[in-house]
Amino acid sequence: MLPVLPVSLTLIIVVTAVSYLRGWLHSSLPAWRAASFFLGLLFIWLAAASPIASFDDRMLTAHMIQHVLLMTFAPPLIWLSEPVRVLFYHQPLQVVLPGSRWALTRQLNGILAQPAFCWLSAAAALVAWHIPALFRLGMHSHAWHLVEQTSFLATGLLFWWPVVQPWPSVPRWPRWSMLLYLFIATLPCDVLSGLLVFSDRIAYPMYFSMPQQFGLTVLEDQQCAGALMWTCVTFVFLVAGTILSMQLLAPSFQANEAVQREIRTL
Q1: How far, in Å, CA of 74 to CA of 97, rounded?
Q2: What are the DSSP calls for 15-72, one per residue?
Q3: 161: which of 111, 212, 241, 262 lies 20 to 30 Å off by Cα?
Q4: Residue 177 located in a structural domain
């Protein structure tokens, strides 16, 4: 059985929330950004430390809820809250990380902020942890289960970084390319979801040894999990794509792009 309501994670989330709140109170950011941060933390807590976690090894649907919360819902909300700006509201990062440490941070940011790297990392985590052998490893080992959840959250944050572009990110690709970035990202989810929904074979036989939950058979649970991922990911990506499209069509955005092009030609 996997641990339920881990106190350590709950304390970490509470401390993080308090630290952000202290910084936000001294910043000029609107309240909706703070609300976005707290909602993102709530989703992380629901996925990893709430009673939902107790069903992780009993229902594939519960596992999929965790996966969607950690990779699709929490990361964009965290980045929308401008967490780096809030934590270092009183001084630039050059002061916090002087000299060689600042140069190393910039180099690391240059590598990790590449959209191709971000996309591949998220796709690799999604596919790898749903391979039956690795899935079984994560379900039977507390340590590997922690690695699995951490990788979901970490690659989710990487994936959404070039889409949201919080401070101090620097655009690597044209803004319109993020629409294609999101569209291509749906393909691994669509393939995996389709296999779970339409296959008559049980992908993870370990659930046969678990009692039925909520009256669902193992196959129905698998189909429900696939449908959940399919609809949730599609919905979130559609919302993000719509917001990006509205930004691209806004006159202020087009004027700023024109200014940037003129600057680059000087």
Answers
A1: 27
A2: HHHHHHHHHHHTS---HHHHHHHHHHHHHHHHHHTSGGGGGTTT-HHHHHHHHHIIII
A3: 262
A4: yes
The answer to whether position 30 is within a domain reads yes
Structural domain including 242 reads: 7-89+114-265
In a domain, 99, yes or no: no
* Domain annotation covers residue 100: no
Lowest mean pLDDT: which of 52-61, 183-192, 224-233?
A: 52-61
What values do phi and psi take at 214, rounded to 5?
60, 30
Q: What is the pTM of this model?
A: 0.86
Q: Give the Å distances, CA to CA, from 46 to 9, 100, 129, 154, 210.
A: 11, 39, 20, 16, 22
Domain count of the fold of the chain: 1
Give helix 218-249 / helix 177-198 axis angle, nearest 10°: 170
Angle, CA of 127, 129 and 132, to the nearest 5°: 95
